[in-house]
Design goal:
The complex is a heterodimer. Helix content of chain A is 0%, strand content 52%. Chain A is an all-beta fold. In chain A, the strands form 2 sheets. In chain A, strands 2, 4, 5, 9, 10 and 11 form a 6-stranded mixed sheet that branches. Chain A is globular and about 40 Å long. By secondary structure, chain B is an all-beta fold. In chain B, 0% of the residues lie in helices and 49% in strands. The radius of gyration of chain B is 13 Å and the shape is globular. The chains are: A mainly beta, B mainly beta. Chains A and B meet through strand 4, strand 5 and strand 10 of A and strand 4, strand 5, strand 9 and strand 10 of B.
Chain lengths: 111, 116
């Protein structure tokens, strides 16, 4: 079946570096994508979303890039801070209303 | 604070017992989702409500699971005859969806279920 997945399960960076977390999706019907951050023991926290009619969207210190040609999504975090350490999930809606999640990438920020 | 609250935060129960979880989204959340998450995995979809109507259920939702949203506001998820494999984090999300498209879904802090 179609699924959402992540290339790297763990990403380690130094404080102040930029981080890039990647996500591949395979459902071509997906027209809405979300990035979530999840800290241990907590629910996923919305970071940023993007619709399929866009290829880039920026928030505070975060940028999401969407490449529909290769079905790839990325989350860029500028000037990564220790507080950014968490598991990051991308989710797609598969053309329906239901967000479908991948496995997640663990981001570790070293001070 | 997403405005979505879940109760209880933690539940330990003996195998075979029934448990019920509650989710309170904000009033604008006409869409409500239940997910289950196990360690090291992403949230897995269980079921989805549009107002009080349950519109979709995952194959993960066996006949021991039932969810309701009687007035289109709070929702409950009941698990009957719990099994050890039901141990997981149960997450609820609310979305202020209107029209055809999605908007951001906001999650509660989840209910951690441990079946012993």
């Amino acid at each position: 079946g179609e699924s959402v997945g992540l290339h790297l399960p763990t990403l380690s960076v130094q404080e102040g570096d930029n981080s890039i977390i990647n996500c591949a999706y395979s459902n071509s019907a997906s027209d809405y994508f979300i990035w979530y951050k999840q800290e241990s023991g907590k629910g996923p926290q919305f970071i940023i979303d993007i619709r399929s009619n866009m290829d880039k969207r920026q928030g505070q210190r975060v940028t999401v890039l969407l490449n529909k040609t290769v079905k790839h999504l990325s989350l860029q975090i500028a000037a990564t801070q220790p507080g950014d350490s968490a598991v990051y999930f991308c989710a797609e809606n598969g053309g329906s209303y239901i967000p479908t999640f991948g496995r997640g990438t663990s981001l570790i920020v070293h001070p | 604070d997403t405005g979505v609250s879940q109760d209880p935060r933690h539940k330990i129960t003996k195998r075979g017992q029934n448990v019920t979880f509650r989710c309170d989204p904000i009033s604008e959340h006409n869409r409500l989702y239940w997910y289950r998450q196990t360690l090291g995995q992403g949230p897995e979809f269980l079921t989805y409500f549009q107002n009080e109507a349950q519109l979709e259920k995952s194959r993960l939702l066996s006949d021991r699971f039932s969810a309701e949203r009687p007035k289109g506001s709070f929702s409950t998820l009941e698990i009957q005859r719990t099994e050890q494999g039901d141990s997981a984090m149960y997450l609820c999300a609310g979305e202020s969806g209107t029209g055809e498209g999605n908007t951001e879904a906001f999650f509660g802090q989840g209910t951690r279920l441990t079946v012993v």
